[in-house]
Write a structure and sequence with these properties.
Elements: H1 2-6, H2 10-30, H3 35-54, H4 58-75, H5 85-90, H6 104-124, H7 145-166, H8 171-188
Helix pairs in contact: 2-3, 3-4, 4-6, 6-7, 6-8, 7-8
Length: about 190
């Protein structure tokens, strides 16, 4: 997949990513106690969303971004609620596999990045949304596109604001997420 991406062969990279997603999904089903598979699934889908976006395939981009958020949300101690970040930081480090981010701060940051990416893609491709494309996460379910985008962006920025205050994350991380949220709002309005 990396070779395809480096060569600018986005379609080939997206197809390779889909194969990787199928493999890690099977691993996750076979070994549900290994949370490392969930992290890899999140990472694979997070990158896949960007590939579909580069190809202008909105429905696929949003779908992959939703799958990425689902995986990262599962691991996120705060569940996207900025008010729960400090509590999440005080929790135990989850065991998510060899080489996986294991600190609560890293897990919350990855989930926040996934929220910001989904917000931008959902806003960009809102006209391609169909019934049944709604969120599978209670916090975002039942909202209009604008409402979901706003909540996703608000949560992503809010989580990073607390992480910047309380962990090793810096202003550049917060600025990156704010930029995605601002891009999402530009697509909406």
């Amino acid at each position: 997949m990396k070779a395809h991406t480096a060569a600018g062969r986005w379609q080939d990279a997206a197809l390779a990513s889909m194969r990787a997603e199928r493999i890690v999904t099977r691993l996750q089903r076979d070994e549900p106690a290994d949370l490392g598979h969930v992290r890899v699934l999140g990472s694979t889908c997070y990158d896949q969303a960007l590939l579909w976006d580069r190809l202008g395939k909105g429905r696929q981009a949003v779908s992959a971004a939703r799958r990425a958020l689902w995986a990262y949300h599962w691991l996120d101690p705060s569940k996207g609620d900025p008010g729960r970040v400090r509590e999440g930081l005080a929790g135990d480090d989850p065991k998510v596999g060899d080489g996986a981010p294991a600190t609560p701060a890293e897990l919350m940051a990855r989930a926040a990045d996934a929220r910001a990416r989904l917000a931008r893609l959902l806003a960009k491709y809102q006209r391609e949304r169909r019934p049944g494309d709604a969120s599978n996460i209670d916090r975002y379910r039942g909202r209009s596109v604008a409402g979901e985008v706003d909540q996703l962006g608000h949560d992503a920025v809010g989580v990073y604001e607390v992480l910047v205050e309380t962990s090793h994350y810096g202003q550049e991380d917060l600025d990156r997420v704010k930029k995605q949220y601002e891009a999402a709002l530009q697509h909406l309005y």
